Hints:
This protein has helices spanning 12-24, 37-47, 63-71, 91-96, 109-120, 128-138, 160-170, 175-182, 186-200, 205-214; strands at 3-8, 28-34, 51-55, 78-83, 101-104, 125-126, 220-221, 226-227. It is α/β, with parallel strands linked by helices.
Amino acid sequence: MSLSVLVVDDQGIVRAGFAAVIDDAEDMTVVGEAADGAEAVRLAGELAPDVVLMDVRMPELDGIAATRIITGRPGAPRVLVLTTFDLDAYVFDALRAGASGFLLKDVRPGELLDGIRVVAAGESVLAPSATRRLIGHYASAPGAGIPGARAPRELASLTAREQSVLSLVAAGLTNPEIAEHLGITVGTVKSHVNALLRKLGLRDRVQATILAYDLGLARPDPSRGVPS
């Protein structure tokens, strides 16, 4: 079954480039393009895409506000944010607004397609190097907190292993990497991740990462610019 994608960016040449890459893939197709957040909200409702590829800085309605509206609807599509990390200080807010992750705009075509497939499958995508620096820098910003997440005391409901997995998720490790680090199977890691998300009232790994920083379970390592 072909994945349907809505491409949102205020620059026509950028939209065309991403659309060409996506339409070249056998398992996905572009069902619409939007030049601003307001149009993205409208088309997301009309076209019901599987994934919305969302720019952040746009006229009329920015990508953060558009993401919040789109993901707040029943049966909402997944939103994958694309950003020029060095200039865009708002990606963290986009994740809080409901985005399933983000990639840099200079992402390779294959990585872009893989990212779309991953979020469509209900997982999250975080650009490895940029995410670790970004989350480490913005997690302590004023207004931190995830709508719908349960109070910190809910952490007491997590087992010691689930807390360890949560910290490793926040460090940007994949399930196979966590499995190797803890000496357990990938299937067991998935079970722990699903359990901690359920107990904490979180939607996905992105929200788990944000919460881990909010609660001090993960922190950036100044020597490397990544979480420790």
